[in-house]
Amino acid sequence: YVDSMNPRPAQAKALILKALGHPIRVQMLEALANGDRCVNEFRPLSSVCQANLSRHLACLKRAGLVTERRAGPRVIHHLACPGILLALKCADDAAATAKKRRDSEG
Question: The pTM is what?
Fold first, then answer.
C-alpha cells in the first residue's frame, strides 16, 4: 500500500533518481563499488575538471548515496548505499532489452 497523500517518499526517490541522471555520476558509483576513492581518482572517467567532478560528488552525497571522510589532506569518498548498484543493474537490463527490441524492429 502506497500512501499517495504523503509526497515525502516520492520526493526521496526522485532525489535518488535525479542523482543517477548523469553518466558521470553513474560511472562514479560504479567506480566506488570497487573501493573508496578520492576525487582525483575519478579523473580517468571524464575529461571534466576536478571542480565539476566535485559537483557531481556533491549531488551523490545529497542523495545519500556517497559519504566522505578525511584522511590527512585528502577527502575519501565511500559508497554509502551499495543497494543502488542493483538499480544500476536493472538499468543495464532495461537498456539491453530496449536495444534488442530496436534491433529486431529495424
Answer: 0.86
C-alpha cell at 22: 548523469
Q: Give me the tens of pLDDT residue by residue for the chain, a chain 106 residues long.
A: 556 677 888 899 999 999 999 999 999 999 999 999 999 899 888 888 989 999 999 999 999 999 999 999 999 999 999 999 999 999 999 999 999 999 998 7
66: amino acid identity, one letter: V
The count of C-alpha atoms lying within 13 angstroms of the C-alpha of 101, restricted to the half-sphere facing its C-beta, is 6
- Taking the C-alpha atoms of residue 90 and residue 5, their distance in angstroms, rounded to an integer, is 28
- Per-residue exposure over 1-18, b if at least 16 CB sit within 10 Å of its own CB, e if not: eeeeeeeeeeeeeeebee
CB 27 within 8 A of CB 45: yes
